[in-house]
Amino acid sequence: MDTLPENVLRPLQRTLDLFEVTPDTVREGVAYFIRQMEEGLEHDSDSHDYLPMIPSFITHIPDGTETGLSLAADLGGTNFRICSVELNGDHSFNLEQYKTKVDKQYMVGTLESLFELLARLVRYFLSQHHQDQLQSSEKLKMSFTFSFPLDQTALNKGTLIRWTKGYDVPDAVNKDIVDLFQKELDKLALPVQIVAITNDTVGTMLANAYSSLSGHKTVLGAIFGTGTNGAYAEKLSNIKKLDPSVVQKLQKFGIDDMIINTEWGSFDNKLEFLPVTIYDEIVDSETANAGVHLYEKRILGMFLGEIVRLVILDLHKRHLILEGYEQMETSLKLVSSSSSLVSLTNLPRRATTKRLSHRVLSEWAFPTEALSRIEVDDTKGLKVTELVLSETLHLNTTLQDRIIIKAVAHAVTSRAAYLLSIAIAAVVLKTGRLGITLENGEVKPTKLNDELVEVGVDGAVVEFYPGFKEKLIEGLGWSQLGDAAKRVVVTIAKDGSGVGAALCTNSHIE
Ligand code: GLC
């Protein structure tokens, strides 16, 4: 950056500053996040004004000593997975699984055809791996990870609010998903009973708690995959929206906590806190679910590459980068008039040679994996960056272009990591487990302790993006957790949804 001429450096710096997240921003975000959690625990889950905070009806948090065989089915994105998990009671497990793509005709077909297909796949799986079980009179417990918005009223009752991720089976909306699936399993006379319907983050939390050998409590299970979300255990007495008769029944069994699926991708849908750049606005407008899950759209891998691509186009339009390429009026879709950038579109044209490639003008053409290669490039002349930009966006760049693009990649992903630390710090503070909590925005001590707590995270960006996890942890230190952040251990909970879902069956109360 030091080598950039002043007339480039200054306007570039102004753009990079748009992505800056300061310790104050993190603290403000944490206080607001906790307020949104509290509101969500009191009110219905489908408002835009606060976090959905969906009660999972999962009340048993494993400690690694659980045993037994159960089934787990998982319908999310385009795949259906079915597995059987044998818990050995010593943090370890044996897993058999079968995964298959769901054909488009079923994703947009009839209710019966979809659930009949799933039931047939369960039968196929049992015939391959548990033939003996098919004849058994004893039913196997099955948990169903169904990562679509659900209105959940019991461990095994969830009504579909709407389909997402390319599914559209209209007659399933507003119906109880467990009921639909169980009917089809029964038609095939399969010895399987669905005892739980759940979310992938809940599974991640349970899987981490079961598998962890550290002895630390797992306080949060989080996913950074095709979406981002987190689940944690909340005191029953704080979940004000729960039916009091449910609370009483659980308390009779000595149960005090329930796991909450926060659906934090929806944090601040009203945009009262989150930074808003013109690039964020454009990215949102490019998505099918514009106007919601706005937190997710500033953090997730697939969005980061797109934000960087839009910044590159904007810098080009402002004659700060890629000067060898012709200016194209259509090269950046400016959907907002709120940005000062709009006025810069009228700059005089310069002598140009080439047109920008179709790739760089195409939405979603810049993968996050490319950003990670750029961020670690320490070669002389940024040769790796040169190759990556040429391969992915078909761009020929000068060294100056590459220095600028590297700085942009760094700014965009740093913002993502620091924003993510807000959710994690907020949940950890909300649990009070580290001996501090936040009440009306003020830090309050709870029970003093020197415990370490674990946060189980599943997601490629946290796992593989160079420096992302470190920034996340730095952000936790900026939050109201302060020094206590050093006692938060972020672990990678790889693919917990199978074993985690199987563990849900342990919350089944007859
Ligand atoms: C989306 C879904 C949420 C899921 C998350 C991670 O945010 O709304 O239910 O947990 O993606 O897969």
Key features of this structure:
single chain, 510 residues, alpha/beta, 5-stranded mixed sheet, 18 helices, 39% helix, binds alpha-D-glucopyranose
Walk me through what this model shows.
This protein is an alpha/beta fold and 510 residues long. It is built from 18 helices and 15 strands. It has helices spanning 6-17, 23-42, 104-107, 111-129, 131-135, 177-187, 200-211, 244-252, 278-285, 296-299, 301-317, 358-361, 368-375, 383-393, 399-431, 460-464, 468-478, 497-504; strands at residues 54-55, 67-76, 79-88, 93-101, 140-146, 150-154, 157-160, 192-198, 217-224, 228-235, 257-261, 436-439, 442-445, 453-458, 488-492. A 6-stranded mixed beta sheet has the order 1-11-10-9-14-15. Helix 11 runs antiparallel to helix 15. The chain is globular and about 75 Å long. Alpha-D-glucopyranose binds at residues 147, 199-201, 223, 225-229, 263, 265, 296.
Shape: globular
The small-molecule ligands in this entry are: alpha-D-glucopyranose
Low-confidence stretches: 334-349
Overall mean confidence score, pLDDT: 89
Gyration radius, in Å? 25 Å
Describe the sheet with the most strands.
6 strands, mixed
State the distance separating the first and last CA atoms.
Answer: 64 Å
Count of DSSP strands = 15
> Which strands sit side by side, in order, in the main sheet?
1-11-10-9-14-15
Number of helical segments with 4 or more residues: 18
Proportion of residues in extended strands: 15-25%
Q: What structural class should be given to the helix and strand makeup? A: alpha/beta
Query: What share of residues is helical?
Result: 25-40%
